Amino acid sequence: MMSNFMAAGFYAVGSKPTNGKVRFLHKRLRPLLACRRLETMSVWMTSTIHHSKGLTVKIRLALCLMAVGFGFGLIASAAKAADPWIVFEGGDGPGKGKHIVLISGDDEYRSEEALPQLAKILSKHHGFKCTVLFPIDPADGSIKPDHQTNIPGTEALKSADLAILGLRFRNLPDEQMQPFVDYIEAGKPVIGLRTSTHAFNIPKGRKFEKYGWTYGGKEYEQGFGRQVLGETWISHHGHHAVEGTRGLLAKDQASHPILRGIKDGDIFGTTDVYGVRLPLPGDSLPLVLGQVTATLKDDSPAVEGKKNDPMMPVAWTKSYMSESGKVARIFTTTMGASEDLLWEGTRRLIVNASYWCLSMEGKILEKSKVDLVGDFKPLRFKFGGYSKGVKPEDLLK
């Protein structure tokens, strides 16, 4: 193709396209090969130049170089690296016109699998536009959950109506933290999943250190997790990777919009119950309690003893008074690993919470559609257990 492309350039100025000339240019320009439509366009332009009457060789040459440059410009645009995030544009549905940004970045619970699936559900079944961000290895552009310092694309939060987080111990550069902080302090809604209670691990002295999970200042004690979501990292209350979580509706909360279409036992996860401090702070409202199960199977009996007396909240709402003075709706669940999404009740909990956070609870159906989209075979949670070499664009295939 490139041989024809360059030969057309010689043709336009009336110079014979010798094999030597074509081979010389083809060898150096081969990396810029793009689609044949670009070649056809440029060849047509150079042919038009050639047949135009009254043009000197110099004018023909100048016009030819412009045509070739135009073709190369289009080629370069078409061949640029794909964005290190993915977007599902949404469509018809209650969520049409709303933008949800989902930010993955945890080492263990496969948020890089969970959040794209949530985005597909919210986009396909409910119409929301969804943008999914990932921790990216700068060396090769692949998704690398244990790379703590790079999540490109946080500027997408500027147009977001809701942020859904699956983060753990991130130490992002200031330029990536700034859009996040701007979003939080504008009083916009947030959903925090699993390890997002300890989303950030920012060293002392850094601009945004107060959002770190160990921050000791009284004005923002224990950082983003405690202040915004309602808790920071405390403990594994259940036996990690041995005991599961069965969701039971909190007393007198069965009629809450987030629990619409959900009954005791519908919510389940292979992730264990996290420990929290009771009571939760401020206006936190527990919606779901986590019954510790003896095994990771959803028909497993509850363990006996103190682990279930009292039961820990595993899903709650609260508000956050932002620096702007606006009050944000917050939903937190200490569930949310990719495997947890295999249970319809767990998916429904998060989808319903998305509506509630956006003050759209009046549009939550009794049985909102939360079917899985596409082939979804989540990996078992463990450190280092992610699929290697996967790039964001691969998740669109």
Counting helices, strands and paired strands, the structural category is alpha/beta
Low-confidence stretches: 1-46, 70-80
Helix content: 25-40%
Largest sheet, strands/sense/barrel: 10 strands, mixed
How many individual helices? 8
CATH topology of the largest domain: Rossmann fold
What is the arithmetic mean of pLDDT? 87
Report strand order across the widest sheet.
Answer: 1-3-2-4-5-12-11-10-7-8
- Using the alpha-carbon principal axes, give the shape: globular
Can you identify the CATH class of the largest domain?
Alpha Beta
Number of spatially distinct domains:
2
Number of strands: 12
Indicate the proportion of strand residues: 15-25%
Rg from C-alpha positions?
27 Å
Write the CATH homologous superfamily of the largest domain.
Class I glutamine amidotransferase (GATase) domain
Which H/E pattern describes the elements? HHHHEEHEEHEHEEEEEEEH
Terminal Cα span: 27 Å
Q: Provide the CATH architecture of the largest domain.
A: 3-Layer(aba) Sandwich
Folded structure, characterized:
The protein is of the alpha/beta class. It is built from eight helices and twelve strands. The strands form two sheets. The protein has a ten-stranded mixed β-sheet with strand order 1-3-2-4-5-12-11-10-7-8. The protein has a two-stranded antiparallel sheet with strand order 6-9. It is globular. The protein starts with a helix and ends in a 40-residue tail after the last helix. The relative contact order is 0.13. Residues 1-46 and 70-80 have low confidence and may be disordered.
